[in-house]
Amino acid sequence: MKKLINKPEDVLVESLRGVAAAHPELSVDLDTHVITRATPKEQGKVAVVSGGGSGHEPLHGGFVGVGMLDAAVAGEIFTSPTPDRVQAATKAVDRGAGVLHIVKNYTGDVLNFEMAAELAEMDGIEVGTVVVDDDVAVQDSLYTAGRRGVGLTVLLEKIVGAAAEEGQDLAAVVALAEKVNAQGRSMGMALTSCTVPAAGKPTFDLPDDQMEIGIGIHGEPGRHREPLAPASDIARQLVEPILADLDLTGPAIVMLNGMGATPQIELYLMYAEVAALLEKAGVQIARNLVGNYITSLDMAGCSVTVLKADDEILRLWDAPVITPGLRWGA
Amino acid sequence: MKKLINKPEDVLVESLRGVAAAHPELSVDLDTHVITRATPKEQGKVAVVSGGGSGHEPLHGGFVGVGMLDAAVAGEIFTSPTPDRVQAATKAVDRGAGVLHIVKNYTGDVLNFEMAAELAEMDGIEVGTVVVDDDVAVQDSLYTAGRRGVGLTVLLEKIVGAAAEEGQDLAAVVALAEKVNAQGRSMGMALTSCTVPAAGKPTFDLPDDQMEIGIGIHGEPGRHREPLAPASDIARQLVEPILADLDLTGPAIVMLNGMGATPQIELYLMYAEVAALLEKAGVQIARNLVGNYITSLDMAGCSVTVLKADDEILRLWDAPVITPGLRWGA
């Protein structure tokens, strides 16, 4: 295992220490692994909380800030945070207008956020929840029942974060989150496995001449393995299942996401392939992201996310955002 | 070789096609591999041009935009762009107030930019040049005489780009560039080799239990190899040579840069180590960057850059910048 770490069991807290040192605009609790804005938003606005296992950086901690999340709860690597920590984060950021939980559809996350919501409601905090399940690759998997939540989470956190920031109420924010989840789809692939520090060896074996299509962000199995193929063929295998699943013609936001170890020169090359295929199919790419946004430790590979957009979604997308992972307009 | 590419010989132009598709605010010439702003800066301001071999993305093309570069010239992977293309870029962005060339100290780049400057001057364009040579690791190397130009280039392009944007004249911009170069130092290390697509195999062999300290951004040799060590030890081996080379006490801008295949969770962990060592030595970190800014294809590893800062440098650092690779304040 070749990693820039000290002891495997200290990776999360030592990385959070770096986040704290690098970003004075964030507050990082090294005991609970909760990241919040150093300056909370105004009283009377909905707060937005997300979280899940670590190893997907910048998701979620890197999306805390003005216009996006109020708090992120970082579990151990690929492990859901416990309900009490999600509850603590919820309580910490509530500004009297309720809190939205953004949960990726993995069994542990769904259960723990559900329990946290119940605990928070006992504290008198109104909680709304959206469960993101955008991955068209597989139905049911190692970590989840139903579709997995992957890349769309990034776009949803941005759009819903903007709605909360401008003062929309909890019902409106929840409805928007459900709309975004219904209108977005993702699909990923891996050239290599990832290596969880505590395991010390790759999660799975993928021979030097093979790739895996439909991989999950924890290295859980995808649809199938096949020999390495050109980028144009990979792009087709990612785009076609997305388009087959939902009518995405018209304006859209598209993300070409790196899995952690794939350099930008390759991500841009893949984006050119993906964009050409989407546009040929009638998708009008109104906005895009190309880079590492939801990763799987040191996995090499990429994923594609397409979100059907309307004027309202684009307006919220363009609203100012100031986070370590996404920043514009301010 | 596991990469998201089609044919190795098409990687650069196909990646540039992705840059063009993703960034309508840039103009990408797919014949000359020159990236410019779609909307040029006002007449009467100094223009800033950089470039060099590709494979270091986001450097340089990802730093074209308001507040930073006017043009970037992308050579083939790890290969200097030819003088005629640098000349064409210089001519394209000249707004009548002269052009600054930012050149990393590699023999090919220095020669080609020198020739391009002569050609541009024959066209009546005044050219100033700064050669960045911040790498304390080695004196002379496979690609260069003297010290190599590495991470400081990112900081210099931002600071000098801001000075040009606010209307400082060519003499002032050149003097600032030289000051920044004199006040900054870098040092890098690798956990793995990179693989140049055309070569199809790793540039060098680095056993599974070894790392290389003082590596260059083309995989050229560093100071020495040794067994894998904890992050705290690696941090010390990067910071100590920097501090031994220059008095960097007082305010500074610090960059913890990823080499391309190292995930953010590790970069933040390394930043915590590096920041603690620097602060103990009297460096006051006023600003920082943690992420992939000057990479070496799919190399795993990191580098540290420290730039001694004063009020003027910090003011220019904080000025608005709108590029794919760095963005804030607008």
Tally of individual domains of chain A = 2
User: Helix/strand/pairing class of chain A, anyone?
Assistant: alpha/beta
Largest sheet of chain A: 6 strands, mixed
> Alpha-carbon distance between the termini of chain A?
40 Å
Number of distinct beta strands of chain A = 14
Helix content of chain A: 25-40%
Low-confidence stretches of chain A: none
Strand composition percent of chain A? 15-25%
Order of helices and strands of chain A: HEEEEHEHEHHEEEHEHEEHEE
From the coordinates shown, what is the CATH architecture of the largest domain in chain A? 3-Layer(aba) Sandwich
Q: Class of the largest domain in chain A in CATH?
A: Alpha Beta
Oligomeric organization of the protein chains: homodimer
Largest interface, with counts of residues having CB < 8 Å to the other chain, equals: A-B, 62 and 62 residues
Question: Can you walk me through this structure?
Answer:
Chains A, B: Residues 7-328 form the DhaK domain. Chains A, B: GO terms for molecular function: phosphoenolpyruvate-glycerone phosphotransferase activity. The structure is a homodimer of 330-residue chains. Chain A is of the alpha/beta class. The first copy, chain A, has two domains: 8-183, 3-Layer(aba) Sandwich (Rossmann fold); 186-320, Hypothetical Protein Tm841, Chain: A,domain 3 (2-Layer Sandwich). Helix content of chain A is 32%, strand content 24%. In chain A, the strands form three sheets. Chain A has a six-stranded mixed sheet with strand order 1-2-4-3-5-6, with helices on both faces. A six-stranded mixed sheet of chain A has the order 9-8-7-12-10-11. In chain A, strands 13-14 form a two-stranded antiparallel ribbon. In chain A, strand 1 (26-29) and strand 2 form a beta hairpin. In chain A, helix 2 (83-93) packs across helix 3, helix 4 (152-165) packs antiparallel against helix 5 (170-183) and helix 4 crosses helix 8. The mean pLDDT of chain A is 97. The interface between A and B is large, with 62 and 62 residues.
